Amino acid sequence: MTHSLTDSLQKTRLTVVEVDAVRRRLRVRGEADACSELSCVERTLVVTQEGSGGLEALNPGDIIKIEPANGRAETIVVLRRAWEEIASPEV
């Protein structure tokens, strides 16, 4: 079975549920609505349209993509902010 680009993107997208910057952990929800907890390294980089920073740059509801290294979330790319998701007319 062949998967389209949209299918592929949907499988790699996660929704931030909770951010614990002190413990360096993220709780995220995947496409199957199952939640997972991710450990982040101290140098985890969060990349947004506004620039880059640490876990403090994330908000619950943000749509993200993880670029792992050594089994941990090393780079997190914010694909869509929570407030953009709420304001979107998409279903």
Outline of the structure:
The chain is of the alpha+beta class and 91 residues long.
Describe the structure.
The chain is of the alpha+beta class and 91 residues long. It has a single domain, classed as OB fold (Dihydrolipoamide Acetyltransferase, E2P) (Beta Barrel). Helices cover 15% and strands 49% of the residues. The protein is built from 2 helices and 6 strands, in the order αββββββα. The chain has helices at residues 5-12, 82-87; strands at 14-20, 25-29, 35-48, 51-53, 63-69, 72-80. Strands 1-2-3-6-5 form a 5-stranded mixed barrel. A hairpin with a 4-residue loop joins strand 1 (14-20) and strand 2 (25-29). It is globular. The model is unreliable at 1-10 (pLDDT under 50).
The string of secondary-structure elements, in order, is HEEEEEEH
Count of domains: 1
Could you give the distance between the termini?
Answer: 26 Å
Dominant shape: globular
Give the strand order of the largest sheet, numbering strands 1, 2, ... along the chain.
Answer: 1-2-3-6-5
Q: Which CATH-level-2 architecture?
A: Beta Barrel
Q: Which characteristics define this entry?
A:
single chain; 91 residues; alpha+beta; OB fold (Dihydrolipoamide Acetyltransferase, E2P); five-stranded mixed beta barrel; 2 helices; disordered N terminus
Fold topology:
Blueprint: H1 5-12, E1 14-20, E2 25-29, E3 35-48, E4 51-53, E5 63-69, E6 72-80, H2 82-87
Parallel strand pairs: 3-6
Antiparallel strand pairs: 1-2, 1-5, 2-3, 3-4, 5-6
